[in-house]
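pls design
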């Protein structure tokens, strides 16, 4: 798992491709972390996690490229595939398959299926 551990307020609800998905009852959001050194592009982790949260097959989701350029997203977070240390604490937030998705530099993916994205957030 990445350097950031799940908070005590998160409840594990599912395992997707070996990655635990947690639910935050206070915020109504789902969280997972990408593994350090795992050779998995963030776009793949995102598709699998949103699919699990929504309870539908990945092929039934809208095309990720309609929301964000997958190659650019992967390039921003390429450190998940390498052994090098992470630097920075940035994040990107966008709407995908009617969920607001935040990808954080520490490897955390936050899925909010109940919120509509209205611009930059502090997530």
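designed seq:
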């Amino acid at each position: 798992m990445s350097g950031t551990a799940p908070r005590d307020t998160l409840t594990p609800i599912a395992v997707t491709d070996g990655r635990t998905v947690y639910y935050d009852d206070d915020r109504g959001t789902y969280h997972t972390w990408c593994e350090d050194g795992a050779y998995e592009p963030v776009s793949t982790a995102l598709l699998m996690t949103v699919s699990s949260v929504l309870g539908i097959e990945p092929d039934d989701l809208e095309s990720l490229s309609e929301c964000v350029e997958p190659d650019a997203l992967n390039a921003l977070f390429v450190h998940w595939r390498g052994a090098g240390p992470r630097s920075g604490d940035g994040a990107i937030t966008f709407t995908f398959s009617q969920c607001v998705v935040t990808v954080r530099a520490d490897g955390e993916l936050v899925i909010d299926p109940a919120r509509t994205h209205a611009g930059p957030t502090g997530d």
